[in-house]
Amino acid sequence: MLINEIYDKMIGIKDYSFRDQIQRASISVMNNISEGFERGSAADFARMLDISKGSSGEVRSMLYLAEDMHYIPIETAALRSKYAALSANISSLIKLLELTSESPEKPYTFNLLPYTASLTAASSHTRLCRRPSGRNQ
User: Fold this and answer.
1) Comparing 82 with 107, which gets the higher pLDDT?
2) pTM
3) φ, ψ at 25 (rounded to 5°)
4) What ranges do the domains of the chain cover?
5) Using CA atoms, how far apart are residues 42 and 51, in angstroms rounded to an integer?
6) Distance (Å, whole) CA 36 – CA 52
7) Which residue, 125, 43, 46, 18, is CA-closest to 82?
8) Quick one: which H or E segment has residue 30?
9) What is the rounded end-to-end Cα distance, in angstroms, of the chain?
């Protein structure tokens, strides 16, 4: 899971506010996807996905900064690439919501599972995006 990679890379950083911020941003990606999905309307879900995408960008930016400040001794290009792929997949899901929603304020009725497969491959963030069939819970 991407969150675990962030925690592992930041473990020795003594700048606790920096470490806290990047960890919180990485958690925010997953939490905002989950919160948007639970709201039940395509518009709310898309809005929260957009916020998640912003948090993913924040993590990438902070990884560059961590390297520049010599907080982490190793190159983080691979981890940044995973977050870039996650952002791209979130964008695709937003577009899918826009294309398939009859009314943005109504609950979405399509099955997200086939479309979240690529997101799940990029990270485990979207495994929370599964609504039981039938009624809203």
Assistant:
1) 82
2) 0.74
3) -65, -40
4) 2-128
5) 14
6) 9
7) 125
8) helix 16-39
9) 26
